[in-house]
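Q: Given only this backbone (326 positions), what sequence would you predict?
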């Protein structure tokens, strides 16, 4: 029987990589697309899977659209990747963030439970739920202490997923993913903001880069590796929660050094720390322990942070170069 996947957040970074992975495995693909003013299918196009996905209009805050999506797609697996995913914006729009990231999860769980309860369900949870960490490496037993409206909203989504699993016996799993990046990352996130700026500075289009807290440390992996973990979770007999991470942490400052030096530049000549870009409360350090995912799923990260950043700089050099030629 052909497997059928419904992906919310199909137009985002992870949506595109997951669509590419599942297309390669022969899935029939359906993607929920919220109507936007701007063109949003460029990532699917870059990975060559735009034609492989049937798009269904809908929004996580609109329960009726989710029922329609589930009824249309008749999915065997649902991946809930849709979210207001930018932590920085969550202080300015806390209610929208909660609406999409918390109530949106209830909505999609309800649509699945009432229409096709046997469907396997994946929830995109986040290391941001750990927030103010008090131990060296975070795993599935680490207590949560979110530090942003985004983190709080994701924590509610996480617990709704656990609760639907325990209340209704649904095959609902939650992946607690640490930061993962790629050349398809949105420009608002710090790695892509840096690699895009490196390309612009190198090609003479920009001279400085303003950043916030460059002492923050993150455990950065490659999105292409992380979507494999999502898929593996739904192939298990039993649903569960898993931390997905590389186990290596890097400061924003060191990340800048790696990215700038790949283009033959010294970040110290270009990066300006701007207090206006500091968050009201930040997560200072994250480092994940993915031992359970390795043991149960056989998953391990394949891409190391320096390789990832260099690939992102190379992709931005090509993009910015094309802009110049046009
Ligand atoms: P992106 O920001 O790239 O993509 C988010 C997606 O959600 C977009 O397709 C967006 O659509 C969609 N979306 C936003 N609001 C709604 C809504 N109301 N209804 C339906 N869809 C909506 O995020 P990523 O791909 O990086 O992340 C995927 C998921 O994983 C998110 O839930 C994120 O919070 C979570 N996560 C991400 C991590 C990371 O490091 N990347 C780490 C841990 C968790 P549009 O393009 O039209 O706005
Ligand atoms: P994060 O990623 O908040 O961890 O959320 P982001 O790249 O936005 O920030 C990482 C760290 O860098 C510091 N920083 C800056 N961040 C941005 N965006 N812009 C800046 O100019 C800047 N300067 C310093 C931040 O303060 C922070 O400490 C990402 C998202 O993908 C979430 O959806 C996901 O859940 C988590 O990762 C895990």
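A: Predicted residues:
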């Amino acid at each position: 029987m052909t497997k059928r996947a419904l992906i919310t957040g199909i137009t985002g970074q992870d949506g595109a990589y997951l669509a590419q992975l599942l297309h390669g495995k022969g899935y029939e693909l359906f993607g929920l697309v919220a109507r936007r003013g701007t063109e949003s299918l460029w990532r699917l196009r870059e990975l060559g899977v735009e034609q492989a996905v049937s798009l269904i209009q809908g929004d996580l805050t609109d329960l009726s659209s989710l029922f329609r999506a589930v009824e249309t797609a008749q999915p065997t697996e649902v991946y809930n990747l849709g979210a207001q995913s930018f932590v920085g914006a969550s202080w300015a729009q806390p209610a929208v963030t909660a609406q999409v990231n918390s109530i949106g999860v209830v909505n999609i769980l309800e649509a699945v439970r009432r229409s096709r309860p046997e469907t396997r369900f994946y929830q995109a949870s986040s290391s941001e739920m750990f927030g103010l960490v008090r131990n060296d490496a975070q795993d599935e037993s680490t207590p949560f202490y979110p530090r942003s409206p985004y983190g709080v909203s994701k924590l509610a989504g996480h617990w709704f997923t656990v609760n639907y699993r325990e209340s209704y016996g649904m095959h609902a799993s939650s992946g607690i993913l640490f930061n993962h990046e790629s050349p398809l990352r949105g420009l608002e996130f710090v790695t892509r903001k840096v690699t895009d700026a490196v390309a612009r500075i190198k090609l003479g289009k920009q001279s400085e880069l303003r950043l916030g807290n460059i002492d923050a440390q993150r455990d950065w992996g490659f999105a292409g590796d992380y979507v494999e973990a999502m898929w593996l979770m739904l192939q298990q007999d039993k649903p569960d929660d898993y931390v997905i991470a590389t186990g290596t942490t890097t400061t924003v400052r060191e990340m800048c050094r790696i990215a700038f030096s790949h283009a033959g530049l010294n970040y110290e000549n270009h990066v300006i720390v701007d207090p206006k870009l500091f968050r009201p409360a930040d997560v200072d350090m994250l480092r994940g322990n993915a031992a359970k995912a390795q043991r149960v799923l056989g998953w391990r990260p394949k891409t190391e942070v320096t390789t990832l950043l260099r690939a992102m700089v190379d992709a931005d050099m090509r993009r910015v170069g094309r802009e110049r030629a046009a």
